[in-house]
Amino acid sequence: xxxxxxxxxxxxxxxxxxxxxxxxxxxxxxxxxxxxxxxxxxxxxxxxxxxxxxxxxxxxxxxxxxxxxxxxxxxxxxxxxxxxxxxxxxxxxxxxxxxxxxxxxxxxxxxxxx
Amino acid sequence: xxxxxxxxxxxxxxxxxxxxxxxxxxxxxxxxxxxxxxxxxxxxxxxxxxxxxxxxxxxxxxxxxxxxxxxxxxxxxxxxxxxxxxxxxxxxxxxxxxxxxxxxxxxxxxxx
Lengths: 114, 112
Hints:
By secondary structure, chain A is mainly beta.
């Protein structure tokens, strides 16, 4: 069990550019979640997948954001036309299916939009 | 609207003493609660959880207490060690586990 991995760990981009982040969950976990964390706040839910199906999206996920999990394994989160307000830590987590299962987090991708 | 609240941004405790971290929630539909620990530049690490059918869960030095009527939970760390110094997040979810709602965190410093 190698844990949840995320790539890249850091990304600096200019406003208006597109960025894409990748998350590899724990292999036997069929649920995958994306969260965003800003300074002084806890992680805020963005979206989650059950296998390849995206089942829930937060209102925080504007139309500039899109997430995919094409084969039910790794996932990508793309932000188009980045804005300075997108600067945050983007966290990925995975879990087994079901209500009472803890989510395991990756190290996060720190995005800075200049 | 913050559904999970941690009203103490920071806490300092002497090594060997008890650390008590508190968390309040507003949504009565929450029935699964967790504590995560976070070091700088790392993702949150799962620490301990409790479901609403219990009022206490213990794992080594860590104990979580749940008071459903008060919508309050707490994490006790006994004895506190310098390696426990981190930010602690409380989280809650409904029984579908679709998303966790996190508090804003409490930064614990254990003084040697």
